[in-house]
Amino acid sequence: MKWIVGLGNPGTAYANTRHNVGFMVIDELARRHGADVGNNKCKALTGEARIGGEKVALLKPMTYMNLSGESVRAFMDYYKVKLEDLIVVYDDLDTEVGRIRLRYQGSAGGHNGIKSIIQHTGTQTFNRVRIGISRPKPGVVISDYVLSPFAKAEQAEVRRMVEEACDAIEHAIGHPFEQTMAKFNTAGGTGSAQA
């Protein structure tokens, strides 16, 4: 079974913040496939969708970002799912708003949710879809920035990124992740390959 974990923070106060784009992607996948991500299991809100004929679990950890790995580990142990079937979706400061980047391994890059998943799984090798939130202007505290909502001027780009991330995940369900990376690691969704 494939399982998609979108990272974010629980509660309405965080709903539309930059740090919660992972949740936004899970919500859009659920909407597209008529799934209800409302079951409270393994320290997460979970649901199940059929994507391309495959059963896919959708998760939104409810642990707060820096403890996301607890939920991932609990789900993994309970359902005996494989790490190679996991895709983690999260916000990325080093990718600009409007772009997504796919990776299958690497360090946490300062992201506390990814750091927690690496700690709880014991590996840096798992599939990821990074959603661009851009870096703040100099002098802005990172923690304040990631917990702030997207600017009005960014909304259209955010919507497009969420759609593109869902497209990439849907593609990855039926294709090797490397192939999905080659297709979706493009400059701002224009279809041109990234050098």
Automatic annotation (TrEMBL):
<feature type="site" description="Stabilizes the basic form of H active site to accept a proton">
    <location>
        <position position="91"/>
    </location>
</feature>
<comment type="function">
    <text>Catalyzes the release of premature peptidyl moieties from peptidyl-tRNA molecules trapped in stalled 50S ribosomal subunits, and thus maintains levels of free tRNAs and 50S ribosomes.</text>
</comment>
<feature type="site" description="Discriminates between blocked and unblocked aminoacyl-tRNA">
    <location>
        <position position="9"/>
    </location>
</feature>
<feature type="active site" description="Proton acceptor">
    <location>
        <position position="19"/>
    </location>
</feature>
<protein>
    <recommendedName>
        <fullName>Peptidyl-tRNA hydrolase</fullName>
        <ecNumber>3.1.1.29</ecNumber>
    </recommendedName>
</protein>
<feature type="binding site">
    <location>
        <position position="66"/>
    </location>
    <ligand>
        <name>tRNA</name>
    </ligand>
</feature>
<feature type="binding site">
    <location>
        <position position="112"/>
    </location>
    <ligand>
        <name>tRNA</name>
    </ligand>
</feature>
<comment type="similarity">
    <text>Belongs to the PTH family.</text>
</comment>
<keyword id="KW-0963">Cytoplasm</keyword>
<dbReference type="GO" id="GO:0004045">
    <property type="term" value="F:peptidyl-tRNA hydrolase activity"/>
</dbReference>
<dbReference type="InterPro" id="IPR018171">
    <property type="entry name" value="Pept_tRNA_hydro_CS"/>
</dbReference>
<feature type="binding site">
    <location>
        <position position="14"/>
    </location>
    <ligand>
        <name>tRNA</name>
    </ligand>
</feature>
<dbReference type="InterPro" id="IPR036416">
    <property type="entry name" value="Pept_tRNA_hydro_sf"/>
</dbReference>
<keyword id="KW-0820">tRNA-binding</keyword>
<feature type="binding site">
    <location>
        <position position="64"/>
    </location>
    <ligand>
        <name>tRNA</name>
    </ligand>
</feature>
<dbReference type="InterPro" id="IPR001328">
    <property type="entry name" value="Pept_tRNA_hydro"/>
</dbReference>
<dbReference type="Pfam" id="PF01195">
    <property type="entry name" value="Pept_tRNA_hydro"/>
</dbReference>
<keyword id="KW-0694">RNA-binding</keyword>
<comment type="subunit">
    <text>Monomer.</text>
</comment>
<keyword id="KW-0378">Hydrolase</keyword>
<comment type="function">
    <text>Hydrolyzes ribosome-free peptidyl-tRNAs (with 1 or more amino acids incorporated), which drop off the ribosome during protein synthesis, or as a result of ribosome stalling.</text>
</comment>
